[in-house]
Amino acid sequence: MNTSPLRLxxxxxxxxxxxxxxxATAWVTDAASSKLTFVATQAGGEFEGRFARFTPSIVFDPxxxxxxxxxxxIATGAAxxxxxDRDNILKGKDFFAVERWPQARFEARVFRATGPASYEAAxxxxxxxxxxxxxxxxxxxxxxxGKSAVLAGTTTVRxxxxxxxxxxxxxxxxxxxxxxxxxxxxxxxxxP
Amino acid sequence: MPLRNTAENYGSLAKxxxxxxxxxxxxxxxxxxxxxxxxxxxxKLQVLSRHKSVGMLLLMLAVVRIxxxxxxxxxxxxVGTGALKKAAAAGHGLLYLLLLLQPISGWAMSAxxxxxxxxxxxxxxxxxxxxxxxxxxxxxxxxSVLFYSLLAVAVxxxxxxxxxxxxxxxxxxxxxxxxxxxTG
Lengths: 192, 184
Prior knowledge:
The complex is a heterodimer of chains A (192) and B (184). Chain A has helices at residues 5-20, 84-91, and strands at 26-29, 35-42, 45-51, 54-59, 69-75, 79-80, 103-113, 118-127, 130-142, 148-158, 178-189. With 192 residues, chain A is mostly beta strands. In chain A, a hairpin with a 2-residue loop joins β2 and β3. Chain A starts with a helix and ends with a strand. By secondary structure, chain B is mostly helical. Chain B has one domain: Transmembrane di-heme cytochromes, Chain C (Fumarate Reductase Cytochrome B subunit). In chain B, α1 runs antiparallel to α2 (42-71), α2 (42-71) packs antiparallel against α3 (82-112) and α3 runs antiparallel to α4. Chain A binds chain B through residues 41-49, 81-86, 88-89, 168-169, 171, 173-175, and chain B through 40-43, 45-46, 49, 52, 113-118, 120-124, 131, 133, 136.
């Protein structure tokens, strides 16, 4: 493989030029009114939790899916389930291990339309030290003025695929493997 | 033994409900105590989930018990006269009330902590209240106070039954014993 200094410099430059070229619309997420929640199962019953802090970076244009991209940083330490002891277990070493892996990340660069306002992103979710492909169906609806939009979707992941639930928590009879993730983002067009 | 109550004796269904409730309340106490000893973990989740399921079973049994009592018009009534008879009626009323309130407070307590309540994992009961940590703390105390109230009234209930049997020498105790038969 050619590893000349020139090539090492040129490659990132080319990559930067490619992504910067025709910008699909960049959006700013209104954190206060947007939410990222999950529904998990314990003892056969469902409960909902949320991530109180997450930072989406959304570039999306239905007319320019090729240049659209999502990246969402999620503060695993901001997971809330409405009960202190359960929150501690979730943030502890057997689940999110937030001291070691404080961030989870979702990234997608491949999009396809599945309906008039519905799409699917093929991305990668990193939780703990595991990265896996995740398909994310979502809807994108522009507001009347075109300057705002609502991006919402739901997908299901298996927690054990990411090592969320070590040791005794591998048991899926008492803590279900499937976790439904839902997001609802209120977007405003970023200033140019 | 007939299924339905008669004027002199409780029927088999009333007896079955009465004694199942007694046994399950004792079981519940020990499950709760065991859960208190456990550190946060899978085993605690299992034990507490069983406590919730058995609690919901107790609630259903209490409802059936009360409905069955209402459906049996000719059932045994408190024996005696005056204040003691009134006290017996009030005591029974309080017992039924506590049998309902104790599981309901636990159910609400779980909901306040956003914990699902299921029936042994088969199906999930709806949340009685919204998730609220402050409310959870209050309901935890209520659940505990209700238990000791239930215990106190149950002890009175037992003493009253023994008093009937040994002091008044009537059939009040026997008519609820699992295989009890009238002597007179």
